[in-house]
C-alpha cells in the first residue's frame, strides 16, 4: 500500500500499484459485504492506520468518525470481521471488503446482521423493516 504515490490517471485506473486516495479528512469509504451471500452489511471509513492493520491482521479495522478513534470491528462484541477479499474501485477512493463475520454474525450496533435493515419507498411511505428482521 502506498497512499503517497502520485500516479497518472491511467496508472491509477489500470495499473497494479495499490495507492488508495484518502479524502481531506484522511479517510476512505469502505463498503462491507458478507463473503458468503453478498449481503451488504455496513458502510464505514478507514484511515491509513485502519487500512494497514486490516491488511496486516486480516481483521477489519475502521476509523470511527463519531468517537474519533480506531475501531477493531468485533473487539467488544466478538463479531470480528475476517477479511476474505479486499477490492479497490477504479480511481482508488473506495474499498469493498468481503468478510466472514465471527460470533453471532451481528454487524450493526442495533443488534442486526446488517445496518441496511430498512426499505425506503419512492411514494413517501415510512421506511419499513425487512421481513427477516
Question: Which characteristics define this entry?
Answer:
mainly beta, 32% strand, 133 residues, Ubiquitin-like (UB roll), two-stranded antiparallel sheet
Describe what you observe in this structure.
The protein has 133 residues and is mainly beta. It has one domain: Ubiquitin-like (UB roll) (Roll). 12% of the residues lie in helices and 32% in strands. It is built from 2 helices and 8 strands; from the N terminus they run αββαββββββ. A hairpin with a 4-residue loop joins strand 3 (61-64) and strand 4. The longest helix has 10 residues, at 48-57. The radius of gyration is 16 Å and the shape is globular. The mean pLDDT is 91.
General shape: globular
CATH topology: Ubiquitin-like (UB roll)
Distance between the termini: 38 Å
Q: What is the C-alpha radius of gyration, as a whole number of Å?
A: 16 Å
CATH H-tier superfamily: Phosphoribosyl-AMP cyclohydrolase
Main sheet record: 4 strands, mixed
Which class in CATH terms? Answer: Alpha Beta
Count of individual helical segments: 2
CATH architecture classification: Roll
DSSP, total strands: 8
Low-confidence stretches: none
- The computed structural class is mainly beta
What's the helix-strand series? Answer: HEEHEEEEEE
Strand order of the largest sheet: 2-1-6-5
Average pLDDT across residues? 91
> Quaternary arrangement of the chains shown?
single chain
Helix content: 10-25%
Percentage beta strand: 25-35%
Write down the domain tally. Answer: 1
